Every structure is written in C-alpha cells, then in structure tokens.
What we know:
- Helices cover about 45% and strands about 15% of the residues.
- It is α/β, with parallel strands linked by helices.
- The chain folds into two domains: about 10-115, DNAb Helicase, Chain A; about 185-430, Rossmann fold, CATH 3.40.50.
Amino acid sequence: MDEKYDFEESFQTKVLALYIKDANFAHIVDGLLKPEYFTTDAQAYICSLALNHYKEYGQPPSLQALVNTIKQHKKARKLDSETAKDVYDLVVKIYTTVSISDAKYVSDQVSEFAKRSSMKNATLKSAELLANGGDLTKLQGLWADALNVGTIDDVASFEYGASVSERVLRRKEPKRGIPTGYALLDNCLYHHGWGIGELSCIMGPAKSGKSMALSEFALNASKAGYNVLYVTLEVSAQITQDRMDANIAGIEINDLPGCGPRVVQAVEEYSQNSGKLIIYEYPSGTFSVSDFNRLINRLRAKSHKFDLIVVDYADIMRSDVKREVQRQELRDIYLGLRAIAQTEHCGVLTATQTNREGMKKQTSDMTHMSEDISKVWTVDLLISINRSENERRNNTLRLHFIASRNSESGFSLVCKSDMSKMKFITEVCEKI
C-alpha cells in the first residue's frame, strides 16, 4: 500500500504547480507522481487529472483544460460539490500564488520519496512472496523495478578539450558493430556492422523480404556470439522460427515437414557457439515503446543483456501518446526506439514500408518512405530493398544506402538471394 507524502501541504501544492506549469519538470518526474501520495482529496484529484492529460497528450494540462475537465466531471456527478469547491480553490492558488522556483530541489525530493516508497513496497511484497514459496524470478523482477525508480537524468556529458586523448585511443581500437553476416556489407557501415546506440532501418515494398531480412540479420548476429532480442508484430513467432529453421538448414520452407532430423542437426550445430536469440510475439498495434522498456527491464532481471534488438516492425507499434495525426505518433515511436538503443547501449534494427510511388521506382529513396519522412531524420541508417522483375527472376536484389548519419550513402550493393530457403542474402556481390 502506497504511503502518503511526508511533505507539508504547501510543498505538495508546489509539486502540483510545477508539474502543471513546467513541462520540463513534468518530463523529469514522469512516472514518479501518484494521486494516492497526496494528503488531501483536492490535491489527489488534480494530480489524477494532470497525469491522465499527460499520458493522453504528452504534455501537462493548460488552465482551460483543467477547468473544462472539472466542469465535465461535476456535471456528470463524478465530483461532489464540496470537493469541487476545494478543487477550484486549489487551482486558483496554483495559478496565482504558488511559486515554481527550485524545480531541481523539488524533483530530487519527489524522486527520493518515490524511491523510498518503491523500496518499502518491494520489501513487503518480497516477504509475502518468500513466505508463500514464490518464484525467485518474480522476486528479481520486483527488485529490478524498484531500483529503476528515479528521475530522468542526462545519460552522459563530456568536456570536449579534456577528452581528446581518450578519443585518439578509442579510434585505434577495432570498430565494434554487430556483424550483419556479410563482410562487404559490414565494410560499408561506419561501425563495421549495426551501430551500438543507433537505430538502423530497412525500407521496402510489401512482400519484398523485410521480415526475412530482419530474421536473417538476427540469426547472423546470434551466430557470431551476440545476444539478440527479436520482437515480431507482423509475422507470428511460429512462422518466424520456421523461416529461421529453413535459413539455418538450407532447406526450402515448404520441405521442412519432411526434414526434421536435418533441421534439428543444423539448429544444434548453430546453437553450439551462438549468443541467445529470444523471440517475442505481440499483436500488431498493441506494443509500445514503454512496453518495450518494461520487457527489457523484466528480461534484465533474469540476467539477459542484449547486443541487438530487432523489431518487425516499428510502423505497426502502438504510440504511448495519442496524437492528432499518425505521423506524429510514428515520430514518437522512432524516437523512442532510438532512445532504447542509446540507453541500453545496443543496436536496434527495424523496418518500414515504401510508399506507392516508391514501389514504381527502380531504386527507392528517402522521398519514398511511407507515412512520415521525418523517420529519415531519426534513424541513423536507412537502407532500401530494390528489385526489378528481371532481378527477381534471377534471384538478385539491390540494397541502396539512402541515408547514413556517419558514413557514405547514395550507393547500392548487388546481392544474390534464395527466398525459397528464407535466405535474404546468399552473397553480397559488388558495390555500384
């Protein structure tokens, strides 16, 4: 059971005032406020309104939004007259007399209280779990969640002049990207593989092999000893694994039912020195960036740390915040995935659709990205899949480097493929 704030009432009102009137403060303490922490009904009610508004619109409510919602609740009898008067008085106070100074000090106090409350709850729940012979994995997850409570701080800072020697030494070290499985492709990438802390994206028309490419790159990374988390929102986990079996065994996917022993042997040989490859399936449009973070934290509590995260695919994820137009939601999703790459210190690989105009072109470029071209500015690397009818008949395709934040773009790699065996690439032939 959550405890009440031990702050005096005026300080609690200051917390509310900062949350409502200072968008940066609201971002910093996101997830740390709860209505039940506040000691008065009016404070708890306003906190609830503000949190719901932030979750829905990604920003604190305006004065007009607060007043309109209060009126609607009063009219619908969700708010009694006596509490409504206290609420109105508190809103007036917040907007007329409460200072929003000392935001850093207030956020530190809010964070400290939230951490303390979370630790107390974890202690009580742990004791209950242990007493009832509960699963130790749940216990680990419980404490991992409690320890993760806190304000959103800067990831890192560097003094440019003072860190030059460190940069010189770093550049002498071998580049450490996550290998794609193809030397010529790796050599075209700045990090000699998928970049750590970066979001890479493969663009292609429907049925062009995007999902096949993602599963193959996931397999290749795992085969090289890297740990991979694969989240599929389009193709079922069962079909994804069937495709991987066909790829690893070199068997046409339609022949899998009659080749059980061969598949088992191939997968066992693959698994001997490979990293972990964990697959999760979620229905399209149900999985958000915050869900992703919760999944990662849950798996971290089980001692899983991933080098590459693959999501098939970002465009059919759910936005955490409902926006007026879809392109704004897509921007939030892509920014969120890139943030995961940075905070988890891993590579993130996804895919996106080519628009109708791009499907008609010999080579698709950034203007042919579906829905929202701002995705181009968010990703660190964008590669398109291109294949004419003649190339399709000859089992070849071209990977066109549309945009790269750190290296050359505007060229293509000619590749051979064998789609019947779920091999997106069998050979990278030449750069053109």
